[in-house]
Amino acid sequence: MIERDLTKSLQKAAAAYPVVTLTGPRQSGKTTLVRHVFRDYQYASLEDPELRTFAQDDPRGFLRQFNRRVILDEVQRVPELFSFIQVIVDEEDMAGQFILTGSQNFLLINSINQSLAGRSAVFHLLPFSQNELALADVFPLGLIGRGFPPARPAPDIDLKNCLFAGFYPRIHDKNLEPQEWLKNYYKTYVERDVRDILNVGDLEAFQRFVGLCAGRNGQLLNLSSLAWDCGITHTTARRWLSVLEASFIVMLLRPHYKNFRKRLVKSPKLYFLDTGLLCYLLRIKSADELLFHAARGSIFEAFVVSELYKKALHHGKDPDCSFWRDSAGHEVDVIIDISPQPVPLEVKSGMTVAADFYKGIEYWRKLSGAREDSPAALIYGGDNSVVRNGVHIYAWWNF
């Protein structure tokens, strides 16, 4: 089993909280992780129809069959359990009693907030990070732009194949053909789960909506335009997008708040959290297609943003990232909001560093009054990590 970065955070939380909750997209490795970390716990999956019926009909009796430590998988399938879990943990007040997992973050977090607020530590597990696949120590988000990770050899896989395959564990564990597996994943999980939550009757409209979101990856979100192109209402588009976000299919990168007396763009940017799934939705048939595809730059951006999010989420922290753009079109791809000052980060898919790669950082430094040697970063599609023009430049596999 590939060691997950979240392991230590889960162990620490289980020693302090009566309930530990792990959410994430389907097939991100939640069950494998909790069964590995909590090996001496009993286990029950609420995907099992018989167990689910038992839990729905007799929640108290269902929970009574377990000893003091149990993993309840896909627990959002039986929301009736949460109130009974609350009673148990309040009565016994023992750390690490329940480990809960679920793939529908919207339903699960709603139940946690209603019944287990203050009693549960909540974590999110995304598919593999590139550091996990490389068996390398994670380079903390707070050090980007300030230094480099320990030296390690370049990976065997090149960038185009990395983006094309994506990071879902089963593809790498079983050495599966990426797009065939992702096609089945999309049909089986994305359409089924999201449509179940939304009660979508028009499958064609929903498929069109997801495809249009893929085409807008890396762009400012314009819900009115998205709804118009899909033939649905603005309200429906907002509802569908919120559930895609809660299901860990997409994420919204929020605009940075500081305006420096400039008019700022206030819309978030839309990104898919897995580049393999994004390639499938964009109908990219091979890794070689990525070399010349019009969406190559935005796919690489999605890769970098998702890696930054994994650095935070897989250590139990909030991803303090945003982007900055003013009404004149000046932009910094990512702002890492850390003390004592935010770190501007540019993302370029090119394999050779060009002079104009620094334009956004130079403008930010001038506008914010930061020194020329203040922390700043550039992540690009090449293989050399160096400092140039006061900017830490990272190879795509080395940040």
How many strands, which pairing sense, and closed or not: the largest β-sheet? 6 strands, mixed
What would the principal axes of the Cα set say about the shape? globular
How much of the sequence is in beta strands?
A: 15-25%
**What is the helix tally?**
16
Question: What strand line-up does the widest sheet have?
Answer: 8-9-10-11-13-12
Number of strands: 13
Please provide the ordered H/E string of secondary-structure elements: HEHEHHEHEHEHHHHHHHEEHHEEEHEEE
What does the radius of gyration come to? 22 Å
The poorly predicted ranges are none
Average pLDDT confidence is 91
Distance between the termini: 23 Å
Percent helix range: 40-55%
Structural class: alpha/beta
**Count of domain modules:** 2
Write the layout of secondary structure elements.
Blueprint: H1 7-14, E1 19-23, H2 30-37, E2 42-45, H3 49-57, H4 59-64, E3 70-73, H5 81-92, E4 98-102, H6 105-115, E5 120-124, H7 130-133, H8 159-165, H9 169-173, H10 178-198, H11 203-215, H12 223-230, H13 234-246, E6 250-253, E7 269-272, H14 275-281, H15 296-313, E8 321-325, E9 331-336, E10 343-348, H16 359-368, E11 377-380, E12 386-388, E13 391-395
Parallel strand pairs: 1-4, 1-5, 2-3, 3-4, 10-11, 11-13
Antiparallel strand pairs: 6-7, 8-9, 9-10, 12-13
Helix pairs in contact: 8-14, 10-14, 11-12, 12-13
